[in-house]
Amino acid sequence: MSPRRTPSGGRIDRLRTIRFIFDGTAYTGHQGDTLASALLANGVSLFGRSFKYHRPRGVLTAGVDEPNALVTVLRGEVREPNIPATMVEIHDGLTAVSQNRFPSLAYDVSAINQLGGKFISAGFYYKTFMGPLIGPLKGTRFWMLCEKIIRRAAGLGRAGHAPDPSRYERMNAFCDVLVVGSGPAGLAAALEAAQSGARVILAELDPCFGGSANWSGEKIDGEPAATWASDVVGELKAHGNVRLLKRTTVWGYYDGNTLAAIERVGDHKDAPARGAPRHRHWTIRAKSVVLATGAFERPLVFPGNDRPGVMMASAAMRYANQYGVLPGEKIAVLANNDSAYRAAVALAKAGARIVAIADLRPDVSAACRKLATEAGAELLTGHAVIGTEGGKKLSGVKLAPFSAASGVSKGNARDIGADCLVVSGGWSPTIHLASQAGARPLWSDDLQAFLPPEAGKGWIGAGAFNGTFSTAEAISEGFAAGRKAAGQPALETTTLPDVEPAPLDPNPAPVFEIKAKGKAFVDFQHDVTADDVRLAHLEGFVSVEHLKRYTTLGMATDQGKGSNVPGLAIMAEALGKPIPEVGTTRFRPPYAPVSVGALAAERFGDLKPDRLTPMHDWHLENGATMYSAGLWFRPMIYGGPGETIEQAYVREAGATRETAGIVDVSTLGKIAVQGPDAAEFLDRVYSNVFSTLPVGKARYGLMLREDGLVFDDGTTWRLGEHDFLMTTTTANAGKVMQHLEYFLDVVWPDLKVHLTSVTDQWAGAAIGGPRAREILASCVTGTRVDNEALPFMGIVHGEIAGAPVMICRLSFSGEMAFEVYSGAGHGTHVWEALIEAGKPFGMVPYGLEALGTMRIEKGHVTGAEIDGRTSARDLHLGWMLSKKKPFIGSAMMDREGLSASGRLELVGLISLDNRPLSGGAHIVEEVDTANPHGSLGHITAACFSPALGKYIALALVSGGKARHGKRAHVSDPLRNRFGPVEIVSHHFFDPEGKRMHG
Amino acid sequence: MLITCPYCGPRDVSEFAYQGDGNRTRPDPASTDPEAWNAYVYDRLNPAGLHNEIWQHAGGCRAHLAVVRDTLTHEISSVRFAREHGAPAHGRRKPGAKA
C-alpha cells in the first residue's frame, strides 16, 4: 500500500494497478487517478520549480485551476509542456517530467534566484537589462541579447521539435440547450431540459460526470451524492436527444451563442482507439446555454504560502474523498470561511490528524465548532498562519493571533508541526464564459466575489456559478435553468431535494492577505508576490489592466483562476478604493489551454486546391516546367536538354513567329452572359460597345472600376442574340464574376441576364503563327477557316478529330492566331490532334514565358500594367472609352487627377547596353548610384525579344509618349543593375498588325 | 456568426463575402456630379450599432443580401434579397451622416 493511500474509499478502481513514469522513476497508481493524486499517494510532494525564483512547488489544487504542478507529458518524440498534473489521467506507459529545473527537480542550480529575490521584483528584467544610451548595444539591442538567456532561466516547459503524429478532428454540433458543467446544478439542468424534449449537450471537463457530487461526501435524497449523480447520468443516457461529452472543456463563448470546446478523446489511453483522434474540437451552436461551471476556491496570501504541502482545502477533500489519497498525515487548516471545516472532517475521517484549525474570523458559528470537534482539531479563532517551515516539503506552520482591523500580533506566535496545510480564502464563481459573452461581473460584498449579472441573452446560470453554494439550492436552480433554457414555463413550486448535511454559511471574512515577513505569493505560476502588486502601485500603476501587464499577474497558463481576486484586493487596498471600483479584467478565450492541433485539425499542409487544365498531364509528359499562376499550374517552358529558361522561350517564341506555336489558354476566366438584356448589360460593364457586335463575332473589351481605373480586359464572343461568352484574365476571373453579379443583383435587378462561370467547362488552345491557318485547315472538319469564313474576330463551329470545337480568330501573340475551344473532357484529345496536325509544319508548344515575350513585343497589357493605379489613357486604351453611353467608371474616369499631365504611361524600353532588364527596376534620367533618386517610373515586364534581337521591356513612365526616342537609365540598386535604355513605343513589333490580319 | 440566407437557410458566415455598406445609392449613370459620385464611390458609414450591409452568399446561391447587423453585437436583425429589397431595412442614411 502506498504511504498516503487510504485503506478504502474513493472512486478509484483499486483492483486495477497502473504503472507510469515521472522524472525517470516508475510509480504505480489506480484506474481513476490523476498524475497528481497518484504521485501524492506515492508520497511525492515536490512537483516542479517556480517560474522566476525556482522555488520548490507542490500541488495546490485538484483541477483545471492548478498553477504549480505543471508537467511535460512525453509521447515518443513529442513533448507536450505545461499540463497540470491534476488534469493528466494516468494510464500504463504514461511518461511525464517536471519542468523548469536543472539538473534535477530536487537540486536546482537556479534556485539561487531565491536569495536575490528582493531584486527580482515586478519589471526587474526590463529595468535592469536596459542597454546604454550609445554604442553597439544601445537601447533595446542589449535587452534582446539578454532576453535569450533570461528566457532560458525563467520559463515553463519546453516545446519539442518533433512533428506531432497525432490526428485531430473538428466537429460541428447544434443543440437547443448546452449545459456546461455536470455538477449537481448542471445535471439537474440537463435532465430537466432533456425531459422537455430539447436537444441537449452536456459538457464536463473532468473524466466523470457529477462534479462536486464525486467528492462532497454529501447525501442527496438518502443516497451518496455520487450515486445520485450517476443515476441522473443514466437517465440522461436513456434520452435519445442528449449528447454527453466528458473530458470536454468549453473554452470559448462567441457571438451568436457559438461555443468552442475541446474533447480530450485519447490522452487517457495507452494507445488511441482505432480511428479515434487525440483531441476533437467542437463548434457548438446552442439556442440556449446553461452555465453551471461552479466556483474556484481562492488561496490566501501569506508568507510561505507556496511551500509544497500547502493545498486548497477543497482540493485536499477531493483527494481524500474521490481518490482515496491523503495529502498529509498531520494537517493544519487556515480559513476565512466555513467551507474548510467540511474538508477538515473529511480528512479526519480518511485517517489524517487535524492538528489545528486557524480561522481568521474572531468567532465562528456553533456549526463550525461542532465540525472542528468532529475533526478532532484544536480551533484557534482569530488566528492566522504567518509563516511555513520546511524545505522541499512542509514541516510546520507558524500561527499568530490576527484580526482584520489590526493585522497580526506577533507576541503570541506559536509553531505547530504539520506536513500539510489546507487553505480556504473563499470562493470565486467561474464566470469566465459569461464574461466572454459580454457579461459585466458584479461584486458581492457578502460573498467577497464577482458574480455574474442576471442571466444574459443566450445563457442562464445555475449553482455555484451564481454564488449559490448549497447543493440543494444548486439543484433547484439547475432544474429551473434547464426548464427556462428549454423554453418551458417556470414551475410555481419546486421541491428541493433533501441534502445532508445542511449548508454552512457561504460568506467569508473579507480578508485576502496576512501581512507578515516573507514572500507571500498572489500568482503562483508567474511568481507574483503581494509586494510586487504594491510596488506596481508605488510606481504609479492604477489601472487593473496595467497592473496585470506590468506584474504579469494572471497572465500565466492558469489565467489567474485563483490569483485574480486576491491580486485585485491587494491593489484595491493600496489604492484605498473598494474592490468594485478597481474593477476586474474581462476574461477572454480560451478558458483553459487548447491544443493547436485541435484548432487546425485536418487543416494543415498546403490548403490551396491545385487547378489543373485538361491538358496538364500532356504538358508534364512533354517536358514542361510548370509554373503556378494563382491556383493554376501552367507550362512555363517546354525546355530541351541543357536549355536555359531564356534559351527555351526564345526558341519557342521564335518558332511561333517563324512557323507556328500552340499554347494552353484553358485558364482564362470564362463567363456565360445570357438573357434578353445581355447586350445592354455588357454595354454597361464594358467601356466599349457590345450591343452592335454581330452574332458570330468577338470583340476586345475593357472594364473599368467605379473609380474610373482599369479593372480587367478580355474578349467577349457573341454566340447568339442573347448569348455571349466573356473571357477574363486568368487572375481576375473570380473578381470579375463577383463584380458582375453585384451589379446585376444590387444595382440593376431589372436586367434580365443570367451569369454562369464556365471556366472549367471549356478547354482552350491558342494556335498562332504564319502557318497556323494551314495547320487548322488540315485538321478541322465541318467548317472552312479561310479569311472569308473566318475573318479577324470571327467565330466558327466545327470538329477536330470528331470532337466539336468553337474557333475564334483572335490574337494575343500578334500572329495570325486562333483560339480553339472544346469541351473540357475533349481538351487533351483536341490538343493532341492539333499537335499532330502541326508536326509537318514544325509547330511547337510554347509556355507562359514565350507567351509573355510575344505580348511584350506587341505591347499588350496584362495584370502587371493593369495594377489598379492605371487609367485607360495611361495604357493608351483611351480609344476604347465610348462617348455614346455611360458605363461603369465613366463618371469618374475624367477626374482631374486621372487626366493630369505627368501620369505614368505605358512605354517600351530597349536596353542599350545589351543586358537584361528586370521588372520593378526604376527609370531615371541620369544615374547616380550613390544616391538613387528621381524615379520617372518603373519596368512592369521584361524579356529578350527574338523578333528584335534585343532585351526589351514594358514600363510605366511619367510623360510617356513625349519621351519616345529619348534616352534614360534603369536604376535598380537592389540588384545593382544600372544602365542606359531608349524609351520607345510599346508597339515594338509589327505595329500595324499586318501579321495577325494576314 | 450565422446569416440566414432567404434561399439557403441559416449558414455560417464563412460562406458569405462582405460586399460593403448598403446605404450607398448609385447616382444616375448619366450624371457626372462629382459630389454624388465621390460620396457613392468613397464614403462609407461606420456606425457603432445597426448597420445596413450587403453580403453575397458566395459559397452558396451567390445571391446578394441586404443585411441589417449590429456592429457591436454582430446580431443580425434582418436578411433580405438585395435584388428585391435594395432599400435598406431601417431607412437609408445620407452618406457622411453620423451614425
Describe the structure.
- The complex is a heterodimer of chains A (998) and B (99).
- Helix content of chain A is 22%, strand content 29%.
- Chain A is of the alpha+beta class and 998 residues long.
- In chain A, helix 11 crosses helix 13 (564-575).
- Chain B has one domain: Folate-binding superfamily (Folate-binding fold, 2-Layer Sandwich).
- Chain B has one helix and six strands.
- The longest helix of chain B is centred in the middle third of the chain and has 9 residues, at 34-42.
- In chain B, the strands form two sheets. Chain B has a four-stranded antiparallel sheet, with no helix packed on it. Chain B has a two-stranded antiparallel sheet with strand order 1-2.
- Chain B is globular.
- The A-B interface holds A 255-256, 258, 285, 438, 684, 706-707, 738, 741-742, 745-747, 749, 886-887, 890-892, 894-895 and B 1-2, 17, 19, 26-27, 29-32, 34, 37, 40-42, 54, 56, 58, 62-64, 73-75, 82-84, 86.
